[in-house]
């Protein structure tokens, strides 16, 4: 049982780490001479020049939804871990970690929403009014975007594990 518990804890911490990296790192859309994420867009010609995504950006509301969903998924994943630790010592034997599972599945839903919005609106986002965004259309999805989808799978699996898991001796 200790091996299973250690695996679940490591799996959950890995999920949280993937969410942190996907949310913070600047590699959702990359190409020759630029890289972009949900926070800023950078060009790398001679020096790195970054432009924050703010309300002057033509698709700011779309990016705000992606930003909010990624932050919320990361926060929910961390909350689920702390609740799991509390339930580990408070639940009676044979009870399930339902609250932990619900919060982890909500985290899963949030990261899926963020990655789905970004996937759907990526072409609109990078074909905006400014000249740089036309160049950005020639890129490809970066590793942070892929990590967001991997984090989706990890949080979904761990949410199901908590739902199925019963506390045993």
TrEMBL record:
Report what the protein is called. Answer: Epithelial membrane protein 2
* Complex formation: Interacts with PTK2; regulates PTK2 activation and localization. Interacts with ITGB3; regulates the levels of the heterodimer ITGA5-ITGB3 integrin surface expression. Interacts with P2RX7 (via C-terminus). Interacts with ITGB1; the interaction may be direct or indirect and ITGB1 has a heterodimer form.
Give the UniProt family note. Belongs to the PMP-22/EMP/MP20 family.
Q: What does this protein do?
A: Functions as a key regulator of cell membrane composition by regulating proteins surface expression. Also, plays a role in regulation of processes including cell migration, cell proliferation, cell contraction and cell adhesion.
The record's subcellular location field reads: Apical cell membrane; Cytoplasm, Perinuclear region; Golgi apparatus membrane; Membrane raft
Q: Name one GO molecular function term.
A: protein kinase binding
The family database entries (InterPro entries) matched by this protein are listed as: EMP-2, PMP-22/EMP/MP20-like, PMP22/EMP/MP20/Claudin, PMP22_EMP_MP20
Per the record, the GO terms for biological process are:
cell adhesion; positive regulation of integrin-mediated signaling pathway; regulation of cell-matrix adhesion
Q: Please provide one cellular component term from the Gene Ontology annotations of this protein.
A: perinuclear region of cytoplasm
Pfam families xref list:
PMP22_Claudin
Its transmembrane ranges are 65-85, 97-118, 141-165
